[in-house]
Amino acid sequence: MPQHTSRFTSRRGLLFGTAAVGAGALLAGCTSNDSSDDEPAANDQPAAAESSGKPVTIGFAGPQADHGWLNAINDNAKNRAKKYSDVTLEITEGSNDTAQQIGQIETLINKKVDVLVVLPADGKALTQVGLKAMRAGIPVVNLDRIFNTPQAYRCWIGGDNYGMGLNAGHYIGEKLKGKSNAKVIELAGLDNLELTKQRTKGFDDALKNYPNVRKVARQAAEFTVESGQAKMAQLLQAQSSFDALWNHDDDQGVGALRAIDQAGRDDFLMVGGAGALSAFQAIKQDNGVLKATVLYPPTMAASAIDLARALGQSKGISGLSEFEIPASLTLYSAVVDKTNVDQYMSTGFK
Q: Which of 158, 275, 338, 339 is the most buried (most CB within 10 A)?
């Protein structure tokens, strides 16, 4: 998942305990504590009992969908907005050019949308335009890549990169608990990204709980199929024997699996990252090395639309006592394996 940056691990957030499925169900019933709105809904639709409220125009600005996860972000936002008869979505053409995205957001500000949902190509570079929107009285839902100051957004919602690595490490550690001198390797993402550092730190911290498990190699790829294949081939050539692999990203994991198949290797277990449909399908088939993936759920974009609607209608969230939505929502990085893959299949991205 290129360039999306999680909150810093010291940032306080509200942790929802069941990944995006739980977050989507809770946020779907955004309400001002009216009894008719209290019933939570399925992940892909608003609460059935919820009636239309004040019309809300939501401006959505994200980066270019040049990666499966980013494309899923856009699709989740658009599909969620369609579920609400009282929501109009003004969506920009995604861009990785900072100046262009700033211009697109300024256009939305000038159109006087009611709420903005922004997944910035670069959180630091777009902080000023977030501040501009807030000062214009337009609340901002900052999605995943965080602005430099909380003054630039009303609510932040995103994934937990440290938790992603932590849960991957614990899953692998538990699977190798009875094996002495177990060896693991790591296929990371782009090393110049903060999110990659957080995922590796979480993974390393988890492995400290398993003295019988040792990480013997790490290679950084680039979140693409091609880089995943090339870097995995190098790891396989250098490591004739190991017990587990953690791959940070399911898109580059497609390439990694190609390299593994070409090498004829099946002597280890593999854990992926993000939640691609292809990974879910492989996990369900259970006839290869891929046994699990750790979520970085793109359904956060659907939840961001729920939050934006609630802000536009001055409502809170069903299931919480507060009259206002929280300032920060951190989604949980659930581990998906063959025991629960059916539950998450509908959220898998292509």
A: 275
Beta bridge partners of 311: none
Extended strands (E) in the chain: 14-15, 30-31, 56-61, 87-91, 115-118, 140-143, 155-158, 182-188, 213-220, 244-247, 269-274, 290-295, 316-317, 328-330, 335-337
Residues across the chain? 350
So where are the chain's domains?
18-159+297-331, 161-295
The rounded distance, in Å, linking the Cα atoms of 55 and 84 is 10
Domains 18-159+297-331 and 161-295 share a fold: yes
E strand or H helix at 163? helix 161-175
Whole-prediction pTM value? 0.83
Question: φ and ψ at 192, to 5 degrees?
Answer: -85, 0
Burial class (CB in 10 A: 0-12, 13-18, 19+), 192: exposed
The verdict on domain 18-159+297-331 having CATH code 3.40.50.2300 is: yes
Band of the pLDDT at 33, cuts 50, 70, 90?
very low
> In 3-state terms, the chain is what percent helix, strand and coil (to 5)?
40, 20, 40
- pLDDT tens column, 61-91: 998 888 889 999 999 999 999 999 999 999 9
And the tokens for 151? 């003054």
Helix axes 19-28, 300-312, angle to 10 degrees: 20
List CB contacts of 236: < 8 A, sequence separation 6 or more. 259, 260, 263, 265
Q: Which DSSP helix (H) or strand (E) runs through 169? A: helix 161-175
| CA distance linking residue 208 with residue 218, whole number of Å | 16
Q: What sign results for the dihedral spanned by CA atoms 332, 183, 233, 289? A: negative
